[in-house]
Fold this sequence. Notes:
The chain is an alpha/beta fold and 391 residues long. It folds into four domains: 10-62; 68-134, no CATH class; 138-189; 228-384, Ribonuclease H-like superfamily/Ribonuclease H (Nucleotidyltransferase, domain 5, 2-Layer Sandwich). It is 47% helix and 10% strand. The protein contains 16 helices and seven strands. The strands form two sheets. The protein has a five-stranded mixed beta sheet with strand order 3-2-1-4-5, with helices on both faces. Strands 6-7 form a two-stranded antiparallel ribbon. A hairpin with a 4-residue loop joins β2 and β3. The N and C termini lie far apart (106 Å). 24% of the residues are buried. Mean pLDDT is 83; it is low at 195-202.
Amino acid sequence: xxxxxxxxxxxxxxxxxxxxxxxxxxxxxxxxxxxxxxxxxxxxxxxxxxxxxxxxxxxxxxxxxxxxxxxxxxxxxxxxxxxxxxxxxxxxxxxxxxxxxxxxxxxxxxxxxxxxxxxxxxxxxxxxxxxxxxxxxxxxxxxxxxxxxxxxxxxxxxxxxxxxxxxxxxxxxxxxxxxxxxxxxxxxxxxxxxxxxxxxxxxxxxxxxxxxxxxxxxxxxxxxxxxxxxxxxxxxxxxxxxxxxxxxxxxxxxxxxxxxxxxxxxxxxxxxxxxxxxxxxxxxxxxxxxxxxxxxxxxxxxxxxxxxxxxxxxxxxxxxxxxxxxxxxxxxxxxxxxxxxxxxxxxxxxxxxxxxxxxxxxxxxxxxxxxxxxxxxxxxxxxxxxxxxxx
Length: 391
């Protein structure tokens, strides 16, 4: 067997190097302390490069004292990048409950340490190991399935439904749950609705046209179709400029029976176009109350003559009182909250026309449930009231 290799500790190596600087003959000095010259030369080179950080042994990083701060910053930066990477990948699961987070940690154990993932994602390391060893209870499994159902409804209805409508849909599917529980789970899942916003005023009431009193007087519930229609105009921002959406709604079933989308606010492009669509979609009964604001698009002779031909009773909101036309404004709130404000980027005018058609005709008028209709869709409400002729 060969002779065992002799090992020298850090203190010996450092002293040998420091003493060698005082000797004129390095080879003779190496022999004096019992090592070969090449080994002393290697120690000197290491000490020259790393100084007091030399001879730390295997597995330790050797850094010159002058570079310690840089290395420490690099270490912290690497740690920050690692934490950001974990957070970025796991952020979609943060509001879905610990069970989902635990599954994410388990799926990534080979890439990151469990302790680091638990720390970044805010879960207890001990609880994670307990979950991993024993699984989840029947009650937690039921909650997990319920959350999945809530998420499914939320995305099935294009992120439009809030706590009350999701609760109603769950009841229709056989679940017994309160809207408070739904709100709690939605909060955990990150499915909270966005707040309403104020919009730009499009009404120009400074004119000398034909204004009339508020005949409707906020009677927003009627018992038959074509007893009262309401109308309003709002702006919609696009990638290049604005579009103006005019709607006509029948208060009976809250259906948008006429609408127009234009780049100009003229009567020919707004109210007249919407009216022409409305009279095609629904009969105009004698004495129909047509309610709007006091804007010039409604008060000018061209439009008032059109209403007179159909024997309509004109009604206008009081000056500056937007609550007199609250139902129309409620629709615009819904449109902007459920569609426009969820967009991360502006659409072109052409794209907006397609999306507005989709929202009004295929979503609002057909699939969306309405609190004013006892949480039924317009089609379901009209089936219940099929004795009325709507066309």
